[in-house]
Amino acid sequence: MYVSSVSFSPDGKTLASGSGDATICLWDTNTGTLKKKITGHKIGIFKKVLGKIGLLTIPYETDVLCVEFSPDGKTLASGSRDNTIRLWDANTGEPKQILRGHSGFTDSISFSPDGRVLVSGGWDIIGLWDATTGELKQTLPESTQLFTEGASSISLSPDGKTLASDNLGSPELSLWNVTTGEKKRTIAGYISRVKSVAFSPDGKTLASWDWQGKIHLWDTNTGEKKQQLFRGSRPISSIDIGCLSFSPDGKTLASGNGEEIDLWDATIGELKKTLTGHDKGVNSISFSPDGRLLASGSWDGTIRLWNAITGEPQRKLTHQTVSSVSFSPDGKILASGSLDGNIYLWDVTRGELTQKLENQNLMRGQANIYPPHIHSVSFSPDGQMLASGGSDNTIRLWDVVTGVQKQTLIGHASRVYCISFSPDSATLVSGSTDGTIRLWDTNTGQHKRMLSGHTDVVTSVAFSPDRQTLASGSWDCSVLLWNIAPSANATD
């Protein structure tokens, strides 16, 4: 199970780690041995209907998102997705107190230098707690509206008088007076978590979309921002998962915006047309190779085919909740990934389902603890393979002609969120919620390289047309460009 947070004891002899299985481990830093495993945070139950095998009850383990030792090393604090903060005896691992007050996840915690105050950052509020009594003394801000000014990261100044926090409601940092609870200053200029990235066909422009609803176009040679796309008086949604796709001629950029799809003039940055028809958020879009059709997948359980020039709807395809769409290189087949764990292949001309690629683990009732979602599907440029990445932490390569699974690529420690083939089909890149990017040999299935640089979920990956550069977007609010030429080092 993946590790979500770590913290050294003040004397450096113990390392605490929080994990996705709702446990905390205490490690001896000299020997590397496990001293104690602490349990107590809640584990919920997730139920889902899985087609042929009926109702499957899956235990969903609640992550411990943050751990922190008190300055005297006697107390360990932990925050979790179960909306609680728990204080433990750092020597025995016995529970001391449960602090309740957050209505959402607790992402970050910090003790004051004297150990009397515990500060917590969550999706709803920032809380100041009496570390001795467990009393919630104050919340910042006083309003507790979700995503207004909650924080996923906090830090106290060395004198304990100033608190710095990120801001889930905007791309800013806030500085607070801990004594009075007043905001001292706001530091602006930071971008938000990145949802999606896409290269233009000529490789000269990179488009990125962040959680603040901003679409930026970047010069890939200089790294400078070329322009930002605005929707006029109509807001760009920051709620649904963003998705971007350039048309094959590079003149149009399509973006899924809530239940709508925007078509932009990629040269001048103007909004050309908005396509409406989906009832829920659009999570994936793809242009056909000839640029005449645009496919969109949505949480409403439909795929819609649009005339990419006029914006007129052409067809509606319906199946289980759609999570990803991809055209074959010849444009005749559309592949869609689903939250039911299977992949569907459609005849684009007739609009008929031609094949269903079934997750064999589901058919045998061997789904792992997480829902078996397919997060991403992608055809290889040579049209011979289809790749899928899912919540079982694996990538599967399928033979497009026979529908037989060729290989399973194993290496990520958490769900595979995004995948992309290199232009020559020889390499597959994958991004995961474990924060890493991995490169795979598609012929042998061997793991070639791991790229570490992001500090949070990798949401999107894309090769440049010349295969020399890889772009990645992440929840850590960054877009990274990697030199992956054959002669480049793994650390480039």
Detail the topology: elements first, then pairings.
Layout: E1 3-8, E2 14-19, E3 24-28, E4 34-38, E5 44-49, E6 55-60, E7 64-69, E8 75-80, E9 84-89, E10 95-100, E11 106-111, E12 117-122, E13 126-130, E14 136-140, E15 154-156, E16 162-166, E17 172-177, E18 183-188, E19 194-199, E20 205-210, E21 215-219, E22 225-229, E23 243-246, E24 252-257, E25 260-265, E26 270-275, E27 282-287, E28 293-298, E29 302-307, E30 313-318, E31 322-327, E32 333-338, E33 343-347, E34 352-357, H1 360-363, E35 374-379, E36 385-390, E37 394-399, E38 405-410, E39 416-421, E40 427-432, E41 436-441, E42 447-452, E43 458-463, E44 469-474, E45 479-483
Antiparallel strand pairs: 1-2, 2-3, 3-4, 5-6, 7-8, 8-9, 9-10, 11-12, 12-13, 13-14, 15-16, 16-17, 17-18, 19-20, 20-21, 21-22, 23-24, 24-25, 25-26, 27-28, 28-29, 29-30, 31-32, 32-33, 33-34, 35-36, 36-37, 37-38, 39-40, 40-41, 41-42, 43-44, 44-45
Overview of the molecule:
By secondary structure, the chain is mainly β. The chain folds into two domains: 3-188, Methylamine Dehydrogenase, Chain H (7 Propeller); 194-483, 7 Propeller (Methylamine Dehydrogenase, Chain H). Helix content is 1%, strand content 52%. The protein contains one helix and 45 strands. The strands form twelve sheets. The chain has a four-stranded antiparallel sheet, with no helix packed on it. The protein starts with a strand and ends in a 9-residue tail after the last strand. Residues 45-61, 142-149, 235-239, 362-370 and 487-492 have low confidence and may be disordered.
